[in-house]
């Protein structure tokens, strides 16, 4: 082997090594093998820590060994390879950060110089983290509150979306990052379980890049009992009757209790024809606030309607002790009333005696039709002495005069 041959072989190896360390975009300008480069590249989210790379292969793949995809500016080397005959021509690059945009470059590895084709580039996102927690609480018979917790790593999240299966399949409410993570869902059916989904999304992406959904279920409240009647039965018990509501078929029971810890007595009314129960063990002659709720049995705590409150008194106990107390108080009350009446009558008589009327009259009837009449200050009759019956009739007519009597007893 001559010196020329050796130098030729060494020159080819040097060219090969130089080309291996050269960027594909610079090689593209230096070689005629651009037709081996992929026609395109699509990057889609795959998970919170990975992306999927899909190639559009070139028309000619005869001399292509494989396709290679590499992530730029990754915290560490991230790449994947795609076999030439694989369909679809895609691979997944992992160990990435959630909710982050990455630039990806892909090229073909070929069997001859320049060994690497011209590259194509595209960008894509990893999925953002899902909400940390979703909680659904009933607000009324037609609404629920959906509350969420932000994930520990909220990188890239621009909004939160809430949907209700069967009612609002598209996002019912959108909450921007930084706002209170709560929304109210209205227009729902009473005493009904609803499935709610929540997810996070990255802003200003088309198509939307959103997290996996987080699902929770919640109930609306039953309708409050329409009419509650409380009847006193004895000195220690009352009967509670409830009128059924339109959603009776979904109500598991009615709960009856005493308000504010006045008593621990309670009873339950199962759904049926006779919606009635009796509260026992109450104190006599006492006022109670009776609370009635319609409830739905769930896998968790019962979901109950708003309270309906009715005031009731228990009857007075007729035990010997209470009966003696009633008689004593009644006697005291009667004596007090009699004393007050006597006091006011005596006071009125004393006032009348202290202020005699100028028309006060004294007369006495003697035998037969003769009357002796005496007037001390009458303006109509002056003098005294025996008068006949005709004169007595005049006096009687004067006494019948209303104004005269008013003056007399004023």
From TrEMBL:
Q: In the UniProt record, does the keyword Secreted occur?
A: no
Would you indicate the residue range of the signal peptide?
1-28
Q: Which SUPFAM superfamilies does the entry mention?
A: Fibronectin type III
Q: Which stretches make up the Fibronectin type-III domain?
A: 224-317
InterPro entries (alphabetical): ECM_Regulatory_Proteins, FN3_dom, FN3_sf, Ig-like_fold
Q: Please tell me whether the keyword Transmembrane helix is annotated for this protein.
A: yes
> Which parts of the chain span the membrane according to its record?
323-345
Q: Give UniProt keywords alphabetically.
A: Membrane, Repeat, Signal, Transmembrane, Transmembrane helix
Could you tell me what this protein is called? Answer: Protein-tyrosine-phosphatase
Species of provenance: Mesocestoides corti (Flatworm)
């Amino acid at each position: 082997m001559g010196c020329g041959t050796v130098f030729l072989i060494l020159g080819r190896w040097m060219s090969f090594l130089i080309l291996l360390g050269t960027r594909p975009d610079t090689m593209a300008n230096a070689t005629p093998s651009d037709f081996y480069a992929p026609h395109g590249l699509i990057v889609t989210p795959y998970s919170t820590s990975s992306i999927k790379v899909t190639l559009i292969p070139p028309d000619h793949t005869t001399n292509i060994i494989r396709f290679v995809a590499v992530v730029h500016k990754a915290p560490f080397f991230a790449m994947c390879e795609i076999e030439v005959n694989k369909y679809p021509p895609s691979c997944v690059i992992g160990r990435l950060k959630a909710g982050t945009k990455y630039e990806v470059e892909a090229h073909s590895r070929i069997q001859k110089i320049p060994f690497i084709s011209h590259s194509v580039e595209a960008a894509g996102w990893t999925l953002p983290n899902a909400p940390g927690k979703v909680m659904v609480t009933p607000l009324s018979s037609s609404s629920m509150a959906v509350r969420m917790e932000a994930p520990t790593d909220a990188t890239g999240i621009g909004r939160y979306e809430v949907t209700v299966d069967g009612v609002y399949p598209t996002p019912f409410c959108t909450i921007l990052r930084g706002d209170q993570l709560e929304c109210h869902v209205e227009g729902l059916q009473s005493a009904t379980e609803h499935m709610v989904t929540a997810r996070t999304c990255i802003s200003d992406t088309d198509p939307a890049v959103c997290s996996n959904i987080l699902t929770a279920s919640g109930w609306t409240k039953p309708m409050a009992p329409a009419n509650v009647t409380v009847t006193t039965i004895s000195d220690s018990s009352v009967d509670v009757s409830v009128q059924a509501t339109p959603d009776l078929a979904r109500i598991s029971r009615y709960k009856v209790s005493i308000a504010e810890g006045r008593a621990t007595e309670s009873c339950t009314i199962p759904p049926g024809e006779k919606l009635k129960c009796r509260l026992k063990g109450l104190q006599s002659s006492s006022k109670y606030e009776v609370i009635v709720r319609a409830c739905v049995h769930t896998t968790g705590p019962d979901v109950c309607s708003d309270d309906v409150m009715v005031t009731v008194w228990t009857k007075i106990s007729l035990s010997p002790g209470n009966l003696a107390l009633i008689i004593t108080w009644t006697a005291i009350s009667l004596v007090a009333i009699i004393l007050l009446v006597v006091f006011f009558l005596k006071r009125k008589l004393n006032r009348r005696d202290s202020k005699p009327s100028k028309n006060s009259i004294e007369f006495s009837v003697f035998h037969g039709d003769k009357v002796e009449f005496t007037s001390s200050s009458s303006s109509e009759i002056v003098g005294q002495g025996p008068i006949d019956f005709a004169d007595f009739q005049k006096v009687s007519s004067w006494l019948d005069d209303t104004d005269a009597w008013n003056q007399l007893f004023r």
